[in-house]
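Ticket #4471: complex job returned nothing on first submit. Input attached below:
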Amino acid sequence: MALIEWKSEFSLGVSQVDAEHKELIELVNRLYTKVRSQEHDPTIVDFLEELYTSAAKHFAHEELMMQARRYTAYEEHHADHQRLLKEVTAMMFEYQDGVLNNMEVMAERLYDWFCIHFKTHDAPLHRLIHSYIKL
Ligand SMILES: [Fe+2]
Ligand SMILES: [Fe+2]
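Support reply: We reran it on our side without changes. The output follows.
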């Protein structure tokens, strides 16, 4: 079973952003499949690197959209993107160093990584963009 199932509420209605969110969820799910095997797998670090790259690109895209609309919560949203990139980097080094060896903890961190940010920061942005689309 996937760690995160795609839901219609994740959809922004802007196809490029939806595709980026789907890509991030797919990467998290692929990572979760590897993590569940419970064996030390050096390719997990490669996946985390791929997640970092895809996330950085997606965050830059969202930030451009926010800036274009003079989004008032830009600073908080940007700060949380920075936190998420640090969190991926932290997981990468902790896994490499053997500090992060409880795979349930890693799965929980991966779930929170996408879902908490989406709920607290992306969803309000999505509502704003939807109101623009309807105008
Ligand atoms: Fe997002
Ligand atoms: Fe975001």
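Helices lie at 15-36, 43-68, 74-96, 103-134. Closing as resolved unless it happens again.
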